[in-house]
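Example record

One chain of 152 residues, shown exactly as stored in the release files.
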Amino acid sequence: MRRAARRLALLAVALLCCCEPLPTAPPEGTVVGRFNTRLSKMDLEAFDTTTCESGEHQSFLGADLRAAENGPVVRIVIDPLTGPAVRVFDPADPARRTATYRRNDCRKFEVELEDTGWKVNELRDYRVTLDIQCEHGNGSYLAGSAKLEHCH
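Predicted structure tokens for this chain:
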């Protein structure tokens, strides 16, 4: 009986050593994206995003790139019928300080959201790439880029 227990313990250790580690987000405070935005006819605002959160937290296919201190949020949304869209908004006033961009609004519009196959706390993990330069006739503007290996 002792031999069987030892073998089982060795097998468990061997299996644990062979497993890949869970995907982790960048360390807190690490800059994952840099953006410039103008919401409506306000001044140009530069900000860095430091966190990425899967859209599954709010029941949409996409991701939110957030600034460290209540700055604007860059939201990537993948619509199954019309394709990707990017929204930038001020979380303190999301109804008035917001702009949404699609490919035809932009000089540069590289939006990639790839499922890594991982789940963290039952939420999908994504690889995110965003490189964008967009402007509307009303003066709103968004330009910048972000790249993350893991967003969940």
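Notes: Residues 13-22 have pLDDT under 50 and may be disordered.
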